[in-house]
């Protein structure tokens, strides 16, 4: 599984690969609770450049984290 993003600062294309998908589909993402979304975000963050990581501070709600995951994929 791979995610492709453009870098606004350098104009380059960033391709991030994952050995297994952290969730199966959009519907699955919407059934996840905050802890499950945190696990998905941590999986992404373990492979993403620091500037693209999903912020997962304690004040972030499940809705916030889900929205950031959706923006990424």
From TrEMBL:
Name listed for the protein in its UniProt record:
Uncharacterized protein
Q: Organism, per UniProt?
A: Neolentinus lepideus HHB14362 ss-1
């Amino acid at each position: 599984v791979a995610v492709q993003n453009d870098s606004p600062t350098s104009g380059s294309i960033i391709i991030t690969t994952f050995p297994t998908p952290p969730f199966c589909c959009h519907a699955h993402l919407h059934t996840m609770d905050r802890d499950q979304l945190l696990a998905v975000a941590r999986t992404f963050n373990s492979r993403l450049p620091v500037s693209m990581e999903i912020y997962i501070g304690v004040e972030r709600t499940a809705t916030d984290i889900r929205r950031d995951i959706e923006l990424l994929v």
